[in-house]
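Entry 14: structure prediction run for Carbon-monoxide dehydrogenase medium subunit. Input pasted below.
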Amino acid sequence: MKPPRFEYACPQSLTEALDLLDEHKSNAAVLAGGQSLVPILNLRMAKPAIVIDINRIPDLDTISSNGRQISIGARARHNDVLRSPHVRLHLPLLAQALEHVAHEAIRNRGTLGGSLALADPAAELPACTVCLDAEIVVRSNRGERKITASDFFKRIYSTALEEDEIITRIDFPIEDSFWRFRFDEIARRQGDFAIAGLAFAARCDEAKVTECRIVFAGVEESPRRIPELEEIFIGANVADEENIQRAKAAVADVIEPLTGGELSPAYRLHVVRELLARVVRDLAHPDMARSL
Ligand code: FAD
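Run finished. Output tokens:
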């Protein structure tokens, strides 16, 4: 199908883009890599009066470090994030997850900001931002807001982003070297959206877990930490087999799996249990946990 008619604007500055968004609000759509917006338009699932292309705005794709945090511009392409030395050194979870995102051609155009704004429940990157305690920085003519990832994702395809706001960058704290990270997923084929994905971070001091963050992708309506599962792993060896079994047994009580579609909630829970056990066992091997 062809998209509906729309006006096309290609602002050269953020100020110009924000003025357009302020003028048109919910009648406007921001275009980043177009990997979701273009199919959405072609399927006529959205009919914006104007498409605001942010690809000419300078500095929206910068990836930088100030020693305390890594800042990734909203328009940074998936492949640029994946190959960034800052990301590979300090955010191995993000790099591991990006290996699972779609295919090379889509990763060449798709952007971090686009993936977060879309908030597809099956997407890997929203779960990573929650697990890594990232802050999403948004701008409008009213000013700048920083929203923690935990507060950003509201429901399926729904975020805290207001209609006059653009995501400008995402700030990720640099954690100390005691942290181990692992992202893995189960999908039908390499590059497909996940049936279930898991972002797992554990701070291990003298082999004992002192902090833990567990966030699933593709399982619930939106990514969130699961404290009931996290608590199970605190105070013991990360891959303590008894704790793995306790966590698997608790899954059905603490996860509300997506309904609808061709996968039953019971099957999704089964996949979650097996994925959780696999990821935790992998995390016990420091090489697996930090290497890419
Ligand atoms: P666009 O398509 O340009 O925009 C997407 C939405 O975000 C639009 O609503 C747009 O208005 C809004 N938006 C974009 N940028 C901003 C911004 N800075 N501020 C505010 N709003 C903004 N993703 C996965 O996570 N995992 C997968 O396995 C996966 N597989 C895919 C397979 C296929 C065949 C395709 C086509 C896509 C797949 N994707 C997958 C999605 C892809 O990775 C992109 O991340 C995602 O589509 C966002 O695309 P984009 O960055 O091009 O944004």
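Notes: The chain has three domains: 7-53, 63-173, 179-290. Will compare against the previous run tomorrow.
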